[in-house]
């Protein structure tokens, strides 16, 4: 349960530690005093979206510390799975800076927002006047029914989930083998076409780069022929060509071999002569091969287009295309040899689908039996809440099987006897939804895992005898779990066994809210203020308030 909540720089609260007790905790205070700050702070500490607007004006950081004691098994299991040390309590600390940075710690261990939210689900349930809208979402109805049904349905759901996974795995195997006979033949035809298309191309690794180089050479052949011819002539063909001049220079120095430096120069000229001679021969060879061939250019261009087309289909490179070829040939071979395997898988699938359907049927029957009980118990609860003549039904529709079975569930509702029963979201008013939510809380008392339930003005719009019945329900819930309740209804407040008063004041031109614990006699006066509707409470209101408290 929630033991203490410490707020630092949260909205109108500068610094405040609030103590909570087991049972029924009632938060009182005038409208606008800041009661909702407590709920907002608790929500923030348990992973609600960080809102910078909650930071007290003029401050840079806010912090909330929530201390929970008397941990239940679900809470202990979570802490153990997260490797977080704990004794008899857990301390959650969350901070938020004005620039939006948030930090979370659980018993001093850093935690993520998701971890915190998962943990919070085992600890606190928030039920406000707007939370009853969740009942309108048909996607929540099956989960509510299953929660009411408890362990029996949970075990059957596990059987369904296991059978569903088995069916899906077999279906995947069948698909990998081509599916049905018609699908397999289509897949084989496609693979055979792809294999033949790639094999007919007769590709070799690196061929595309060689073709690109050859294309560039052939497309430049005319210019290459002209320029290499001119270069060759200057080196070795024309009068006064380079090789001739080098040869003459070499010979002029040959008679001075006994002079070391001159001989070295002669040798270097001779080396240049042979190097230039070799270059000239290479250029001549290039020139001779540089015949422009438009047909070869067209052939190369077509080949490159073919490779480009295959690359778009089967892979970016020739290596990828050839790898795709190997994979397709293996898949084709598996398909051609898969008929026996496929027949066996189809037989297995038929048996598995029957097992799944049988499990779904068992689950559905069990749900329907609990739906009957839920209908009766909810009607009884709603009768107690002055909604006599109310009709509530759980409507079942069959869908395709999933891990949750083949049931789609929808809550149907009629608030008045003689009226047609309709979808809950089409017919229930706000006050009716609040009472319906409270009715659900009562029938789910032994199904809930949380130790603390927060009711934020769930009695809004409810008065008179109905408010008394609602107070009975809240009091009943507080026997099983801790309740924190914000209320403006005297009869509801009078049922609490712990009271907190939120007051707003101005100090040094700053508005602040303070929270203080009330004695029973102080609580009588505050409830009398709710009755009178004024600060100056009358003796009549006080006597009335005392009577409400004495009825506990």
What attributes does this structure have?
single chain; 552 residues; alpha/beta; Rossmann fold; 6-stranded antiparallel beta sheet; 6-stranded mixed beta sheet; elongated
Record the SSE blueprint.
Layout: E1 2-10, E2 13-19, E3 24-28, H1 35-45, E4 61-69, H2 73-81, E5 89-97, E6 102-106, E7 109-110, H3 113-120, E8 124-128, H4 141-149, H5 151-176, H6 181-201, H7 207-219, H8 221-236, H9 242-252, H10 260-289, H11 294-314, H12 318-336, H13 339-384, E9 391-402, E10 405-414, E11 422-423, H14 424-427, H15 430-443, E12 452-456, H16 464-478, E13 482-486, H17 490-493, E14 498-507, E15 510-518, H18 520-532, H19 539-550
Parallel strand pairs: 3-13, 3-14, 8-12, 12-13
Antiparallel strand pairs: 1-2, 1-4, 4-5, 5-6, 6-7, 9-10, 10-11, 14-15
Helix pairs in contact: 4-13, 5-13, 6-12, 7-11, 8-10, 9-10, 11-12, 13-15, 15-16, 18-19
Largest sheet: 6 strands, antiparallel
Can you tell me the overall shape?
Answer: elongated
Q: What is the count of β-strands?
A: 15
The mean pLDDT is 84
The tally of helices reads: 19
Distance between the termini: 23 Å
| Share in β-strands | 15-25%
Strand order of the largest sheet: 2-1-4-5-6-7
CATH topology of the domain at 1-123 and 451-518: Rossmann fold
Instruction: Identify the CATH class of the domain at 1-123 and 451-518.
Output: Alpha Beta
């Amino acid at each position: 349960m929630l033991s203490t909540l410490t707020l630092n720089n949260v909205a109108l609260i500068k610094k405040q530690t609030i103590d909570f007790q087991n049972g029924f905790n009632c938060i009182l205070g005038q409208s606008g005093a800041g009661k909702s700050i407590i709920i907002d702070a608790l929500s923030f500490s348990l992973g609600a979206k960080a809102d910078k607007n909650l930071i007290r004006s003029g401050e840079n950081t806010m912090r909330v510390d929530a201390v929970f004691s008397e941990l239940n098994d679900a809470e202990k299991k979570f802490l153990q799975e997260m490797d977080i040390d704990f004794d008899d309590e857990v301390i959650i600390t969350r901070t938020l800076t004005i620039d939006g940075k948030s930090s979370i710690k659980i018993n001093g261990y850093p935690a993520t927002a998701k971890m915190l939210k998962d943990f919070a689900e085992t600890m606190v349930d928030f039920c406000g006047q707007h939370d009853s809208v969740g009942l309108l979402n048909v996607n929540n109805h099956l989960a509510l029914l299953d929660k009411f049904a408890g362990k029996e349905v949970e075990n059957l759901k596990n059987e369904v989930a296991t059978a569903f996974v088995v069916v899906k795995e077999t279906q995947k195997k069948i698909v990998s083998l081509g599916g049905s006979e018609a699908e397999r033949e289509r897949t084989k035809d496609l693979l055979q076409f792809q294999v033949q298309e790639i094999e007919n191309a007769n590709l070799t690794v690196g061929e595309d780069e060689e073709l690109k180089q050859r294309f560039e050479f052939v497309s430049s052949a005319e210019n290459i022929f002209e320029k290499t011819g001119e270069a060759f002539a200057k080196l070795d063909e024309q009068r006064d060509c380079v090789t001739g001049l080098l040869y003459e220079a070499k010979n002029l120095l040959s008679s001075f071999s006994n002079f070391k430096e001159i001989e070295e120069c002669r040798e270097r000229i001779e080396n240049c002569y042979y190097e230039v001679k070799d270059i000239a021969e290479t250029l001549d060879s290039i020139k001779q091969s540089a015949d422009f061939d438009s047909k070869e250019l067209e052939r190369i261009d077509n080949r490159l287009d073919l490779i480009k087309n295959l690359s778009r289909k089967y892979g970016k490179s020739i290596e990828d295309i050839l790898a795709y070829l190997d994979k397709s040939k293996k898949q084709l071979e598996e398909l051609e040899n898969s008929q026996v395997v496929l027949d066996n898988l189809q037989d297995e699938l038929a048996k598995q689908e029957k097992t799944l359907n049988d499990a779904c049927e068992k689950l559905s029957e069990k749900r329907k039996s609990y739906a009957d009980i839920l209908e009766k118990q909810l009607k009884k609860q709603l009768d107690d809440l002055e909604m006599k003549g109310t009709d509530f039904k759980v409507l079942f529709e069959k869908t395709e099987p999933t891990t949750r079975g083949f049931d789609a569930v929808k809550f149907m509702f009629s608030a008045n006897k003689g009226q047609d029963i309709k979808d809950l979201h089409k017919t229930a008013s706000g006050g009716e939804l609040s009472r319906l939510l409270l009715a659900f809380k009562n029938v789910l008392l032994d199904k809930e895992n949380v130790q603390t339930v927060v009711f934020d003005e769930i009695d809004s719009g409810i008065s008179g005898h109905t408010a008394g019945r609602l107070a009975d329900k809240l009091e009943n819930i507080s026997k099983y779990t801790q309740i924190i309740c914000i209320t403006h209804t005297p009869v509801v407040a009078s049922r609490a066994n712990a009271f907190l008063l939120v007051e707003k004041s101005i100090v040094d031109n700053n508005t602040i809210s303070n929270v203080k614990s009330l004695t029973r006699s102080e609580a009588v006066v505050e409830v009398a203020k709710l009755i009178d509707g004024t600060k100056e409470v009358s003796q009549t209101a006080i006597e009335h308030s005392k009577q409400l408290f004495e009825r506990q």
